[in-house]
Amino acid sequence: MNTTSQPSNAQLSNSDTPKGALHGIKVLDLSRVLAGPSSTQVLADLGAEVIKVERPGIGDETRHWAPPKFSDDTSAYYATINRNKKSLTVDITTPEGQTIIKQLIADSDIVVENFKVGGLKKYGLDYESLKQDNPRLIYASLTGFGQTGPDAKRPGYDYIIQGLSGLMSITGPSDGEPHKVGVAVVDLFAGLQLTIGIQAALLARQHTGLGQHVDVALLDSALAMLANVGMNHLASEKVPPRLGNQHPNIVPYQVFAGQGEEHFILACGNDSQFAKLCDVLGVDWHTDSRFMTNPARVAERELLCNALAKKFAEHPRVYWLEALEQAGIPCGAIHNIAEALAMPQAQAREMIVDFAAQGSPVRALGSPIKLSASPVTYRTPPPRLSEHTDSTLAELGYDSETIAKLKADGIV
Hints:
Layout: H1 8-11, E1 26-29, H2 35-45, E2 49-54, H3 76-80, E3 85-89, H4 95-105, E4 110-113, H5 127-130, E5 138-143, H6 158-164, H7 185-208, E6 213-217, H8 218-225, H9 227-236, E7 253-257, E8 263-267, H10 271-281, H11 294-299, H12 301-312, H13 317-326, E9 331-333, H14 337-341, H15 344-348, E10 352-354, E11 363-365, H16 389-395, H17 400-408
Parallel strand pairs: 1-2, 1-4, 2-3, 4-5, 5-6
Antiparallel strand pairs: 7-8, 8-9, 10-11
């Protein structure tokens, strides 16, 4: 399959395209940068109508986070999380702008915002104000530290939260400095948590008829991401160390190098797999009391892994990958980004979206959500700044003369 091919859903005509799972749901997106927009893109992919509100003349900051850009001047960063949305520019600091937003919210199901706590209250766009006129409204807030607590008013940034949460303390070489993850994982995980909260609120509304406030924080999401490593601390009261590519609870479960320093991952998750590994290596270490069980191997981590490293250095990576896969032992190469996206499996799963059919040069990473009856669709590429301002205002009843005046005054 060609990596530039368009996913099957996107190839369907409008009349043939199945309605998405969230068809009929209207979302007003007041968020910007990554975490909030990543959530609203999921909602948009699932069929919701998402109107992205941007600052007149400037737009979302990520429009300017380039290079790289596509040939239509769309930054790759902005294109990451803004497909299937409409772009409306409004200055929400003005009374006229606030009126427009409130008119849109009157028949919206969801508002998503990532302003500092209390930042929208002065404009009358906070949850307590808006729910008076629209009690069915689901108001989703994504902030650094949440709506409550001593740090609630602090600004939040993925990198800072990776450090504060302990995530960086367990990432990177054991004898080096702490490392952040290569992408803004806290932003993205918080965006997913926000999406889950929004969908839960939609389900709850079916029973109660009322909306609610969804409150998700970067710090909370990062702490939850600590998962088993965080639980290791709660169970032992010990501070988990930084182990580089090693696993804190399983051995051998890490990166090794074949002959010529070609790296690969070995994920030997149980005693049976370790016995198979020993067969492949031609050793009987699985009968040695020091290595028989996983707890024993964890205790003798350094001794065992040094011995494994010497054995793996005897042959090239391709030799070991073939032998290990044949024996049913989990393993894999370490790809660069180009190699990962070129994988036949990635192409078969339609993980690259090409918007050429919609007249856009943008290619984007696809959605991992596969639904059999109401699939994700890729309807529109990331919008140009203010592309839908006129049409959105016209739907609200503004005539062309009023729209022109709003533009002249810098309101939209």
